[in-house]
Amino acid sequence: MRERAISAAVIAIVVAAFYLAGQPWLTLGIAALATLAALEVFRLLPAAGFPVQPLPGVLGPPVLVLALGLDIVDAGWVAVYAAAVLVVLAIDAFRRPEVRDGFLAWVGGSFGAIYPASLAFMAGILVVAPEIPDDALFADTPLTAGQVWLLVLVITVWSFDTFAYLSGRTFKRGRFLNHISPNKTWSGVIGGTVAAVIVGGALAGAAGQFLPGGLLMGLLVAVAGQAGDVAESMLKRTAGAKDSSNLIPGHGGILDRTDSFLFAAPVVYAYLLIVGA
């Protein structure tokens, strides 16, 4: 417990330092997370039965983070990146003498490159976030619009995780996808979703957005965040691993800490593209 608390404190200090430093440090920090998450994915994939090679899959996610976060390319290039990864990894798979091994290497490598690359949408939020209206609560802070909306994403996801844990421990009703993650319950999912809707709606309103739209965003973040958590559990369960790595004492790996954001960040990114249009 002491080890876990110390790790949490160190993580909080590091994250706060990068967050308050703003750009380009915030994007560089997200790129580092994407690199570590990709390394963990490619550590799990061979144990899950996919004979993958780490390169070029590990290089793709941080490059995409830097491209979106530093506004070098727009979101349309994400599709180009995905297609290029599929082609390069397919060519690499062709050289394998066993066709089945080649196919599994292609499928696993493509997944490993694209899955952690979703963190790029966290960096993209820094670029596409609309200006905070002068009458909004967040207008009185020194934060940029991108920092505000990244905070909205993080706190909404954390509120889901926290209240899902608390309500799940309190009510313990209804197993939820227990063949993948035995500790999850419907009471936890419902409690976390209610919290995410309320918190997401309130924060979006404080950022100057129409309340119903913020409530919908909170709901979608809850659904996506839960899906991201279950998806990582599926990968770990297939690989026979409890944690994605032991990088963070008491907490597991980077992928364990960012799995919800892999699916939730694209939701907020899409929301901001719509409201900012």
Structural class call reads mainly alpha
How many strand segments?
Answer: 0
What portion of residues is helical? over 70%
Q: Overall pLDDT, averaged?
A: 90
Shape: globular
* Percentage of residues in strands: under 5%
Distance between the termini: 47 Å
Calculate Rg over CA atoms: 19 Å
Oligomer: single chain
Main sheet attributes: strand count, strand direction, barrel closure: none
Low-confidence segments:
none
Number of helices: 10
Topology as a string of helices (H) and strands (E):
HHHHHHHHHH
Describe the 3D structure:
The chain has about 280 residues and is mainly alpha-helical. It has ten helices and no strands.
Short key terms for the protein model shown above:
single chain; about 280 residues; mainly alpha; globular
Summarize the structure.
By secondary structure, this protein is mainly alpha-helical.
Topology of helices and strands:
Blueprint: H1 2-21, H2 25-47, H3 60-69, H4 76-94, H5 99-114, H6 120-128, H7 145-171, H8 186-206, H9 211-239, H10 254-275
Helix pairs in contact: 2-3, 2-5, 2-6, 2-9, 3-6, 4-5, 6-7, 6-10, 7-8, 7-9, 7-10, 8-9, 9-10
